[in-house]
Design goal:
It is globular and about 55 Å long. It has 298 residues and is an alpha/beta fold. It is 42% helix and 21% strand. The strands form two sheets. Strands 2-1-3-10-4-11 form a six-stranded mixed beta sheet, with helices on both faces. A five-stranded mixed beta sheet has the order 7-6-8-5-9, with helices on both faces. It has two domains: 138 residues, D-Maltodextrin-Binding Protein, domain 2; 117 residues, Periplasmic binding protein-like II (D-Maltodextrin-Binding Protein, domain 2, 3-Layer(aba) Sandwich), CATH 3.40.190.10.
Length: 298
């Protein structure tokens, strides 16, 4: 048997040690997870802490949670590869896809609809004379959207008022005659409060978030009345461009195998299903038509 010189054996041993340490280091690298603030960032961060802990346990690696001040911040972090996985709305996903090859992994089966779709709504105060979205537009009042990149707080409510006769400009998103004024509150909870206080006459909001606000007592039950709804494809969990395939598969499997009812309740899900870019074709088409395809929050 050929005997290798001691120097060669030493180099091989060093290489093995380095490889072992590198493998351990790779296994211990943090997974950075971003979440859009569809409610205030502090509340969103606290809400998703149990999920962060669950994912950390399943993946056997540290998971760090990032909640930006707005939707654009999460999209920017994702496309710049500062985060690995992100929870986006359909609109922020197609905006991110314009800038980078991000991959949708899963979306929730909504607890209220029992489908991968949920509902966007236009709401008014209970004492409003408006009985439909067309009434809102015809009366020419003040309308509030949430974050400019929100699917159910911006894109689909805009589609609803356009279908009802508003002439919304694509170059200036605050002009939708005959509406007197259009504004962006930054979030669903802020839109609900704007309508409730009377500072606007109507607003676009995610219906299940309104229901949560009512359960929490933030909005008195029945104080806001729904005058129109539209189905929206569920929020996708998205992987950044270049994320290792094994990591994507492990994250996907972690979602598909959630069985903890409390965790599912927290995330408004009955379960999770795989999704692809095809599922967001309608979102992409509407965003392009209404001037929201690019990230207007930048």
């Amino acid at each position: 048997m050929t005997r290798l010189p001691g120097t060669v054996l030493g180099l091989m041993a060093a290489a093995l040690i380095a490889t072992g340490c590198g493998g351990q280091q790779a296994a211990e690298e943090s997974l950075h997870v971003g979440v859009i603030p569809n409610i205030s960032p502090d509340k969103q961060r606290a809400q998703y802490e149990p999920f962060r802990a669950y994912l950390e346990g399943r993946l056997k690696r540290k998971v760090e949670l990032f909640v930006a001040a707005d939707y654009a911040g999460v999209v920017t972090a994702l496309t710049a590869k500062r985060i690995d996985i992100a929870y986006l709305g359909g609109l922020s996903y197609v905006q991110a896809r314009e800038r980078s090859a991000v991959t949708p992994l899963v979306s929730e089966i909504d607890q209220e609809t029992g489908e991968p779709e949920y509902l966007a709504a236009v709401v008014v105060r209970k004492d409003s004379p408006a009985r439909s979205v067309q009434d809102v537009v015809t009366r020419g009042g003040r309308f509030a959207f949430g974050d400019v990149s929100s699917t159910s707080g911006s894109l689909y409510p805009r589609a609803m008022i356009v279908d009802a006769g508003a002439r919304c400009h694509t170059s200036d998103l605050t002009r939708c005659p005959p509406l007197k004024r259009v504004s962006f509150t930054g979030g669903h909870d802020a839109t609900a409060q704007a309508v409730l206080s009377g500072s606007v006459d109507a607003g676009g909001i995610e219906l299940r978030i309104l229901h949560r606000l009512e359960r929490q007592g933030t909005v008195p039950k029945g104080a806001l009345r729904v005058v129109g709804t539209r189905k929206v494809m569920g929020y996708p969990w998205v992987a950044r461009e270049g994320l290792d395939g094994n990591v994507r598969a492990a994250v996907t499997n972690a979602f598909l195998t959630i069985r903890d009812g409390r965790l599912l309740d927290l995330m408004r899900a009955k379960s999770y299903v795989r999704v692809s870019a095809v599922d967001y074709a309608d979102v992409h088409a509407k965003a392009a038509k209404l001037g929201l395809l690019t990230n207007r929050g930048e």
